Amino acid sequence: MARIPVESFVLGPAQGATLQRQVQDAVTRGVLAGRMRPGDRMPSSRALARHLGLSRITVTLAYADLVANDYLVSRGRSGTFVSPNAPTPAPVPRAARPARGGVDWSRALGQRFPDPAPLARPADWRRYPYPFIYGQTDQRLFDHGNWRRCALQALGSRDFGPLSEDAYARDDPYLVEQITTRILPRRGIDARPEEVLVTMGAQNALWMAAQVLLTQRRTAVMERPCYPALREILQLGRCIAQEVAVDGGGLPPGQVPEGADVLFVTPSHHCPTGVTMPLARRRALLALAERREMLIVEDDYEFELGFVTPPLPALKSLDRTGRVIYIGSFAKSLFPGLRLGYLVAAEPVIRELRALRGLVLRHVPGHVQRTAAYFLAQGHWDAQVARMTRAFRDRRAAAQAAMDTHGLAPARANAFGGSSFWMRAPEGVRAIDLADRLRARGVLIEPADAFFSDPRPGPFYRLAYSSIASEDIPEGIARIARETARLAGSAQAVWP
Amino acid sequence: MARIPVESFVLGPAQGATLQRQVQDAVTRGVLAGRMRPGDRMPSSRALARHLGLSRITVTLAYADLVANDYLVSRGRSGTFVSPNAPTPAPVPRAARPARGGVDWSRALGQRFPDPAPLARPADWRRYPYPFIYGQTDQRLFDHGNWRRCALQALGSRDFGPLSEDAYARDDPYLVEQITTRILPRRGIDARPEEVLVTMGAQNALWMAAQVLLTQRRTAVMERPCYPALREILQLGRCIAQEVAVDGGGLPPGQVPEGADVLFVTPSHHCPTGVTMPLARRRALLALAERREMLIVEDDYEFELGFVTPPLPALKSLDRTGRVIYIGSFAKSLFPGLRLGYLVAAEPVIRELRALRGLVLRHVPGHVQRTAAYFLAQGHWDAQVARMTRAFRDRRAAAQAAMDTHGLAPARANAFGGSSFWMRAPEGVRAIDLADRLRARGVLIEPADAFFSDPRPGPFYRLAYSSIASEDIPEGIARIARETARLAGSAQAVWP
């Protein structure tokens, strides 16, 4: 029952915590390390405040919170003491570090996986003045206030019971209702709740679809170029993976090889070039799928950003036989760190996918689902999409104007909109070299080599306007044009 | 530029929403359905309030919020109008429902997955007066207030940037720090951040470990009985799966078959029987693993609930050669719907697991990680564990006393604690029949058939005290004893 000296209090690194919290942390650390024991007497708030150079009210509030959480007890005039119910420190001593080299991991590991596609963006991309980077949320456009309110609502005690449970057999019915009534009708898709599965984003949906639909003897067709993670999924999976090059209208049905079983396509606007598949070609692709008994996995990423012309109906909306498995995501309209998407398919497919998801991860966290459900139900999602669409239209126009001024042009016409242009560096210039040079000048672009299966660096890059303000675009484009011209001037013809 | 009649307003089903929110929803539904168009004039708040039978302030607040979100604009005395910036309705008409029977799914599906283990608990288990069900959070014990505060902190604008990003290459460093400095030392494990992977719960960790460590030619050993999802993972995976029966000290090393490559064990207290592996056996198992070059996957679920005797050091803490892959979870100490766990292993293993996770789901949602990090950092997790431990100790004592009174006894001595007893119905009584009878009497128990690979219903069941109040336990046990006696009286000897 010692008296704890004020000298034993040292505030740790701030980590963005308030002073009150830092005081609390110092106490919990002391208790958990066994330095402060049940019954020990705390310094008076006055003495501790003086020692730490804080106001007394800060320490008083910290003590009050610690009392509320049963770390401390207050015994009126006698003072404040470590609670008899305070958590006890770890009973087990730390073991010595394991000896190195006990296992030959090159033999012990059963399967190896490719490194995730190298990141084209540096971790500190937000510090660059001209970040033409793709797929990250622009905080200036995100309705953070309403998102937080919806999250708070989902965190309320009324929702806590059901959301805290293990719920692998079903998704949040409220979110599924929002998806079927508010989102899918925009794409012309009429789905029942039993035909929807909530996923950890679009990539998780693609991965699961590949597992359920393919076998070692089946052939999957992907577009060329292709979303790198999908290519890795198919190349690793037990299937025969083939590529078909896209043209200005997306995947040409005539090029689909005989014997293909499952096609993975992005008709709304191809990833990454942004070209849109015309309606006639969509119908032709569906007819082909029916004739040859193929299945189609449609990744409708970013459909909500079709602002140049209204998006064509999803393939899934034209599908009369249930051959299309449709994938959507909230990564762009909400944010990618949320990991939330959905998949629409015939019930037998959903059944297998749900069972697979149950084995792999059980379900998407309940609060994540419910927060998004509230955000949708209250109309914030629609407003958010409207706000992004307006901003992206302006940014696209600014980029187009600046490119016109400086004699740059996208490599593919994009009548859809979206959040990026597909660019090609001139003859002899490698996109990675251009990106290196530009980075030193405060400009970030994304070399597109990872979208191709060839190992050799190529000329293509992606110029995204989803994270850069309109007013910064002209100068950014000017710098790209300047560095492009410099590199082209010194380039040798490395392209055949 | 029509005037919108009050009659077009109908409040939808409440779904727990406030009246103000229901008014807002009615407007956003009208806008998104195209019934209310930009420039249309809204009814006055007075008229709409009268029509809906609400107070005028409710409607005024709803309008104000809709103005803030740019669904409406207020033009002073002229009235309130649908904003020119309001989201536009879906441009695409709904497609007709796909024709049925276009695809023969029995042929089209490449892989089938077992139904997730049938739920032993009914969805409305909270309504039963005597729910001896396992693994769900008791809201009376969960520190909901501080969890919500930590979630709010993680949802703040300071954290939003990093947490909103796609971050598949790394986990939240703040959570990893809490795991390595606050949790693992309790288990005697000294791990560097590079040796930790954050997972979607323990099951996700088990699944990933199986993918990375096993191949078609390798042999996995599981305990018998065994966590059902692990058995499904191993039986589906590309490996040879074998069972070894546990005795009163867990998995007997002498029974491990020659040629085993990876052992999946629960030494702290076996799942589901609760027996603890003695220290000598842990050392023998490790020595065997080194001699035969086996790897061990240690699922340390519920370690924080070892309150009868302090938990023995984790296998991982005794491991000198890096052969042990350690799995922990927040499902019990926080809640299962959170889907949060962690895995500790040698760096080469973590590298493959991270790459696999990147392909399958990219990463655990940022806010989920950060909320847990704050909860840990502020000492709430330790306090939570202390609170649960006290409550479970009381409940366990109440259950033991009631069993003594009624002549029931656990089938396995459990010196650990945890949240359940392992029970065996008398000769000739099937646990599913006992559970059926009890359900009609307000008592839920969990037949343990899913823990065995035999198809035949057996006598074992799990009696968990993690979701039932101490004061309800004696009557619940009395009913179990009564129904057990009735069934035993009428039983024929169906066990060999």
TrEMBL record, chains A, B:
GO terms for molecular function: DNA binding; DNA-binding transcription factor activity; pyridoxal phosphate binding. It comes from the Bacteria. The keyword DNA-binding applies. Keywords: DNA-binding, Pyridoxal phosphate, Transcription, Transcription regulation. InterPro entries: Aminotransferase_I/II_large, HTH_trans_reg/aminotransferase, PyrdxlP-dep_Trfase, PyrdxlP-dep_Trfase_major, Tscrpt_reg_HTH_GntR, WH-like_DNA-bd_sf, WH_DNA-bd_sf. Residues 17-85 form the HTH gntR-type domain. In the C-terminal section; belongs to the class-I pyridoxal-phosphate-dependent aminotransferase family. This is GabR protein. It comes from Jannaschia aquimarina.
